[in-house]
Amino acid sequence: MAEQEGARAPQEHGFDAPYWQQHWQRAQGRPGEHRAVPNPHLVREVEGLAPGDALDAGCGEGGDALWLAGRGWRVVGADVSAEALARAAGRPGAGSVAWVRADLTTWDPGRRFDLVTTHYAHPAMPQLAFYGRLAGWVAPGGTLLVVGHLRGAGHGAGHGAGHGAGHGAGHGHPEGATVGVADVVARLDPAAWDVVTAEEHERDVTAPDGRQRRLHDAVVRAVRRS
Ligand SMILES: C[S@@+](CC[C@H](N)C(=O)[O-])C[C@H]1O[C@@H](n2cnc3c(N)ncnc32)[C@H](O)[C@@H]1O
């Protein structure tokens, strides 16, 4: 979303459901709104795993959920925005994913998953607590993959790199929407989790306005031992 279109500056909003609905409504019609490629961290971290039941938490317009489904995963794509889910449901192959409108800060899936993955979702609750919720939905032996906006790496209000590769150019990421890799790892009980990946990444993407942006990502993959 572009700041000039919204009434609220990025550091002032709470990333609640109306905010995200507006985000997706404003993205409508913009070039690049359907990402052509899945998140590269998802591809790298998951392509070697045996498919099972997966949750894409904050799936947006569904490109990553669809990529997982194409690899044989049985995928639930959950998002708080009806607009995002409508866009996802309109994509080729959308019938291979179960799209669920849910506020993940309160939702109880009533089950566990072999993979819970989340890419740049930052809801109206503390980021690390949100990841803690997602971790609780991973089955024994299953995987948690967190891809977040890296704290302290060009993500100040008003000059952030945007939400993922395909949308959100010009949107700054206030500190509360960012994380440090070590902080995500520290959230996982070492008695229950094996951390496989804990990395910081930079990558350049083309934003909807056609300009190149640099994304700074925190990537953590962990396997639940028990
Ligand atoms: C920056 S977008 C990222 C979308 C997608 N994962 C991607 O990488 O392109 C963040 C997504 O998280 C969703 N989201 C934010 N808060 C949420 C919540 N409380 N429950 C469910 N989804 C939420 C938003 O609607 C939005 O689609």
From TrEMBL:
SUPFAM superfamilies assigned to the protein according to its UniProt record, in alphabetical order: S-adenosyl-L-methionine-dependent methyltransferases (SSF53335)
* Keyword terms of this UniProt record: Methyltransferase, Transferase
Keyword hit for Transferase: yes
Matching Pfam families:
Methyltransf_25
Q: Where does the record place the Methyltransferase domain? A: 55-142
> This chain belongs to which protein, by name?
Class I SAM-dependent methyltransferase
Where on the tree of life does the source sit, at the highest rank? Answer: Bacteria
Species classification: Bacteria, Bacillati, Actinomycetota, Actinomycetes, Motilibacterales
GO terms (molecular function) for this protein are: methyltransferase activity
An example GO BP is: methylation
Question: What Gene3D superfamilies does the annotation carry?
Answer: Vaccinia Virus protein VP39
